Each structure stands twice: as structure tokens, then as C-alpha cells.
């Protein structure tokens, strides 16, 4: 494995962690939106706040890591993506900012109308942000981002069948991950009724996402044939593994094995995440720009790898400790007066 491959793998690992951890946070906002009216949905919203409150800011570390590595290690790909897809990327960035601000303000608000205002902003931005990020992924995967500054169409690069499919799947996967995590969190919070509610939502979301994914096969075959051939070729074992793990997750949800289903759901999503780069390898921007063509000078790659390794030694234990503390935090169903 050369330095460019190693750095590309590290970047994709960071993107996977953001999808699994940050994605679940976005999914929590989806369920916050669907929790019901202000007072009836308050217990669910309290649990969601408890689950994501200590870690939602930390999860954005992975997005920053991905952007810095892409910028430093693969500058041509970075410039091409950022200039062609700046509209959905800007909308996603605004969504992240609005979501974080609204989440913080809602927790400190005392008036019901303020909680409704900030809660609505938090929930809606939790839906729109992963959708726009999914459209970015679809635009890249379908070969609509050519190398060069703003070389692609600024609208059709992300408003197209593959991008819309990617956006819908991104929202669905986030909601599914959040529902599976919240089942376990509700059990630990001694709220079996809420656990049952999130279990039903997780099952329904799993079926819905599976149906969209199956329908998406026809979309990819028509709109992104190169990606379709890769997914049904060299990446097929990963896609099959994701489907099997998805079915296992449904079975575990049915049997109420909430802790185990967290693991199988994570592995199912991770398999799909890694199926994409395997399908289009060695292209970084299909159909022609390879990762070697986009890579920076060897000294930049090796230096970035070294810095990333040192950073991992400093950051990963801290994040692991944060998650451990978060799981040990006592749950307070009612906000203290």
C-alpha cells in the first residue's frame, strides 16, 4: 500500500465514523421532529437530548478530519468537489450551524414557544443536512464532478436521480441508526415503553430503507452505469454482507436484542460505505481522475499520514472516554426546575 492509498483509507475511515456517529445524531433530530406535539413528545425529546447532548459536537471532528485530509492530500479532488458542488455543500454547512445553535438554545429556553421555535429549527436542519450531503455523494459517484474549478454543472451535478437517491438514503440511514441506538438508550433509562416505540420505528425504517435501496438498483443502472457495474462486480461481497447484516439487525430488533443490534446495524452501514470506494477504485472522481492523479506530492502525503497518526493517538482515547462517560450518565426524564 502506497502513501496515497493509506491516506485515502484513513480519510474514508473518518468519513465512515462520521456517517455512523454524526449520522445517528442527525437521525435523532428526525425522530425529534416526529415525536409528536410539544408536551406529548417531551419524554422522547428528553431521551434524544440525553443521548446526543454530550457527544454531538465531538462527532463533527470526523467531518473536519475528512475535509482537511482531502484538501491536503488530494487538492485537485478537493477543489473540484468544492467548486462544482458548492450549493449543496453550503446548504449542508448552514444546516450544521443552524442545528447546533438551535439544539443549544432549546436546552436553555424556558418558554414553550421558544422551545418550539428552536426545536423545529433543530429537527428540520437534521433532515435537510444529511439529505444535501447525500446529494453530494450521489453527484460524485455518478461522475458528474469533473476535475477542475467549477468544471461541472452547478445544478445538475447534484439535482439528478442518483443524487436524489443518495439524499433520501442518507436521511433514512440516519433515522435507522438513531432508532436502533435509542432502543438501547431507552432500556438503560428504564423506559420500556419508549424502547418499544423506537423498536417499531427502527423496524419500519429498516424496511423502508431496504425498499428504497432495492428500487435504487434500477436508478443506478440507468443513471450511473459505472457505479452500478462496480457495485455488482468487485464490491458485490460488501453489498451482500450489508444486506445480510441488515436482515440480522431486523431479526435482533424483533427479538429485542438492543445491544447486539447496535453492532450489526453499524456493520451493515459500514459495509455499504466501503462498497462505494471499492466499486469505483482507482477512480476518485469518476470516470477518469484516479487517486494517484489527484494526490499531492509524496512528502505531503507522508507528512499528513504522520500527523494523522499522532492525532489519532491523542484524540481517539479522549473520544472513547467521552462515549464511556456518556453511557454512564444518569437519565433525568424531567428537566430540573
Description:
With 337 residues, the chain is mainly α. It has 13 helices and 2 strands; from the N terminus they run αααααααααααββαα. Helix 1 packs across helix 11, helix 8 (192-223) crosses helix 9 and helix 9 (225-231) crosses helix 11 (258-280).
- What average pLDDT do the residues reach? 91
What kind of sheet is the major sheet?
A: 2 strands, antiparallel
Q: Tally of extended strands?
A: 2
Structural class: mainly alpha
The shape is: globular
Number of helices: 13
- Name the poorly predicted regions: none
**Largest sheet: spatial strand order:** 1-2
Helix share bin: over 70%
Give the percentage of residues in beta strands: under 5%
Terminal Cα separation, in Å? 58 Å
SSE diagram, text form:
Elements: H1 3-33, H2 42-52, H3 56-73, H4 75-84, H5 86-108, H6 112-141, H7 161-188, H8 192-223, H9 225-231, H10 236-254, H11 258-280, E1 283-285, E2 289-290, H12 291-294, H13 298-328
Antiparallel strand pairs: 1-2
Helix pairs in contact: 1-2, 1-3, 1-6, 1-7, 1-11, 1-13, 3-4, 3-13, 5-6, 6-7, 7-8, 7-11, 8-9, 8-10, 9-11, 10-11
Provide the descriptors you would attach to this structure in a database record.
337 residues, mainly alpha, two-stranded antiparallel ribbon, 79% helix
Brief overview, please?
With 337 residues, the chain is mainly α. The protein is 79% helix and 1% strand. The chain has 13 helices and 2 strands; from the N terminus they run αααααααααααββαα.
Amino acid at each position: 500500500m502506497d502513501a496515497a492509498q493509506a491516506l485515502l483509507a484513513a480519510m474514508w475511515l473518518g468519513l465512515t465514523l462520521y456517517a455512523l456517529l454524526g449520522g445517528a445524531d442527525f437521525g435523532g433530530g428526525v425522530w425529534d421532529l416526529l415525536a409528536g406535539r410539544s408536551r406529548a413528545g417531551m419524554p422522547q425529546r428528553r431521551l434524544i437530548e440525553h443521548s446526543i447532548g454530550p457527544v454531538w459536537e465531538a462527532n463533527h471532528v470526523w467531518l473536519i478530519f475528512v475535509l482537511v485530509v482531502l484538501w491536503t492530500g488530494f487538492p485537485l479532488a478537493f477543489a473540484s468537489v468544492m467548486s462544482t458542488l458548492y450549493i449543496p455543500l453550503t446548504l449542508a454547512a448552514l444546516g450544521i450551524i443552524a442545528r447546533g445553535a438551535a439544539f443549544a438554545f432549546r436546552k436553555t429556553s424556558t418558554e414553550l414557544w421558544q422551545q418550539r421555535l428552536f426545536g423545529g429549527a433543530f429537527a428540520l436542519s437534521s433532515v435537510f443536512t444529511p439529505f444535501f450531503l447525500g446529494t453530494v455523494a450521489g453527484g460524485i459517484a455518478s461522475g458528474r464532478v469533473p476535475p477542475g474549478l467549477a468544471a461541472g454543472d452547478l445544478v445538475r451535478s447534484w439535482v439528478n436521480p442518483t443524487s436524489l437517491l443518495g439524499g433520501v438514503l442518507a436521511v433514512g440511514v440516519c433515522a435507522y441508526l438513531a432508532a436502533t441506538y435509542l432502543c438501547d438508550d431507552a432500556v438503560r433509562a428504564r423506559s420500556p415503553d419508549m424502547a418499544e416505540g423506537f423498536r417499531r420505528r427502527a423496524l419500519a425504517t429498516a424496511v423502508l430503507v431496504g425498499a428504497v435501496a432495492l428500487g435504487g438498483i434500477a436508478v443506478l443502472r440507468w443513471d450511473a452505469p459505472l457505479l452500478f457495474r462496480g457495485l455488482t462486480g468487485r464490491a458485490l461481497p460488501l453489498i451482500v454482507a450489508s444486506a445480510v447484516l441488515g436482515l440480522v439487525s431486523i431479526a435482533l430488533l424483533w427479538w429485542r436484542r438492543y445491544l447486539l443490534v447496535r453492532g450489526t446495524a453499524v456493520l451493515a452501514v459500514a459495509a455499504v460505505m466501503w462498497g462505494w470506494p471499492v466499486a469505483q477504485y482507482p477512480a476518485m472522481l469518476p470516470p477518469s481522475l484516479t487517486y494517484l492523479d489527484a494526490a499531492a506530492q509524496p512528502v505531503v502525503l507522508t507528512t499528513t499520514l504522520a500527523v494523522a497518526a499522532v492525532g489519532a493517538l491523542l484524540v481517539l482515547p479522549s473520544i472513547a472516554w467521552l462515549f464511556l462517560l456518556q453511557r454512564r450518565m444518569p437519565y433525568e426524564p424531567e428537566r430540573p426546575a
